[in-house]
Amino acid sequence: MSLPECLLVLVAGAFAGTINTVVGSGTLVTFPVLLAVGYSPVVANVSNTLGLVPGSVSGAIGYREELAGQRTRVLTLGSASVLGGIVGAILLLSLPPDAFEAIVPVLIALALILVILQPRLSRMLAERRERVRPHGGPLLWTGVFGTGIYGGYFGAAQGVILLALTGIAIPEDLQRLNALKNVLAALVNGVAAVIFIFFASVAWLPAVLLAVGSAAGGQLGAKVGRRLSPPVLRGLIVVVGIAAIVQLLT
Fold this sequence. Notes:
With 250 residues, the chain is mostly helical. It has one domain (3-249). It is built from 10 helices and no strands. The longest helix is centred in the middle third of the chain and has 32 residues, at 97-128.
C-alpha cells in the first residue's frame, strides 16, 4: 500500500472503532476501504476482523463503569458469542470464496436495513421493557449465538443486532446494554481472529493499521459517544454500505 492508502486505512480504523463502541457497523466503513486499496473480499474480511479486535476491547474498557453488576450476564451470553464466533469463522474458511462474495452484498443490505430501522427498534424496545424477563433467557442466548455466527463470518452491524436483541429481552438502561454489546462483540471478533491467524491469509499491514486506529477510536467512542449525532452517523453508514454493495457487484 502507498502512504496515502495507509493513512486512509488508519483513519477508517479510528472511525470504525468509534462507531462500533457507540452503535456498531464499523465494518461497513473499513471493509469497503480494504476493498478499495486492492484486497480480495475474503482477505479484506479476515484482516478487518483482526484489526477491529483492539477497538472492541478498547470500547469495552471505556464502558467498564456500565458493566458493573453484569458479570453473570456477560458470562452467560459471552459463552454464546464465543461459540457463535467459532462457528462463523469456520464457515468463512470452509465455504468457497465465491460463496462469500455472493453472500456479503446480501448481508450488508440486511445490516443497512437494521441501521435504518434502529430508531424504530429502539422505540419498540422501550415499549416492551415492562413485559420482558430481567436476564433474557434461552431465546436471547440463541439469538446471541446466531449473531456470533454472523459476526464470525462477516461482522457488519453485529453491534446493532446485539443491541436490538438484548434491548428486547432485557429491561435495562441502553448504555448498560451498549457496554454489554461491546464485550460480546469483542469476544466474537477475538475468537474469530485467533482462528484466522492460524488458518487464513492475513494482510498484516492493514490489520495493524486498523488495530491502532480502532483502539484509539474505541476510547473516543466511549468518551464522546453520547454526544454524537445518531442520524448523521446512520446516514454516513448507509452511504458507505451502498458503496460497498456497488463495488462488490461490479
